[in-house]
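Researcher: Re-running this chain for the archive, since the previous output was lost when a drive failed. Same request as before.
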Amino acid sequence: MRQQTDVLVLGGAGVDTIVHVPELPLPFADSYMIRPGIETRGGQSGDFVALGLTALGLRTHHLDMIGDDHEGELVRALHRDRGIPLTEVLSPGGTKRAVNLVGPDGRRLSLYDADRAGDSDRFDESTVRELAAVTRHAHVVITQPCVFTLPVLREAGVTISTDLHDWDGADGYHEPFALQADLVFLSTTALADPERTMRDITDRGRARTVVATAGADGAYLLHEGRLTHVPAVGPPAPVVDSNGAGDAFASGFLFGRLNAEHPDRCALYGTVAGAYACTVPSTRTDAIGREDLLARVAEVEKERGTHGTQAAGETA
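Model: Regenerated structure tokens:
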């Protein structure tokens, strides 16, 4: 019998090769001497969400396709070392991998190996049903073949969240995720009009809550038709890498949601967790813990005298 879990994370397991560069965009040159050195470590979007949720005390299970390769061993080791249950399906194309160019200011450029996933890749439907039957919530990463799990999860009756990352609001690949999830995260990076895209998701899809993260500008929360601006939270240490900040935000938000907090406060949890993630070097995979998150949220609420949100368009 499967153990009861709070969150089933589907997809997004892989490895990143971290390359620190002197600036972004990187000017053309025949070669660069890289210091600190180039390092490959386990951890992509699904891994980071699972790690963040586990650090916050939520029972988490991760399902994805992983190759019989060195990169796969790094992913397995990450889950084993952090005590995160992992159900793996063999990936014929190998474990997902990417190269992250990280600038001195913490910004990054990610290069994903698109050859690692195949159009015919699938999870066994019975495995998805079995895992869904013992979980409260499913967070679905937009990697292949997770889109095929959405109807199965819906039939199982679990709530669903997803992160569209830097969706432009038009790419058809993201649309099934956007329209079939109950809670949608995305970045404002590629959106000409974030509010329009957020409202389009709620108008055409299932979601009643959409969150658009905006980096140093905080985030925007659309809940039951009301749009609010969530101010950014100062990081507890210097910013060294923005990689994983969105995944940490999602973890913090889900922690609040699964503890029946109001979406305004969930968003504050997310901003605090995301700010912490920006202080973690890209070669590490640390996440904020429950006690630190709650303490920092209490500090911010005391400083602001509010729950950390305001109507969109108002000044802080």
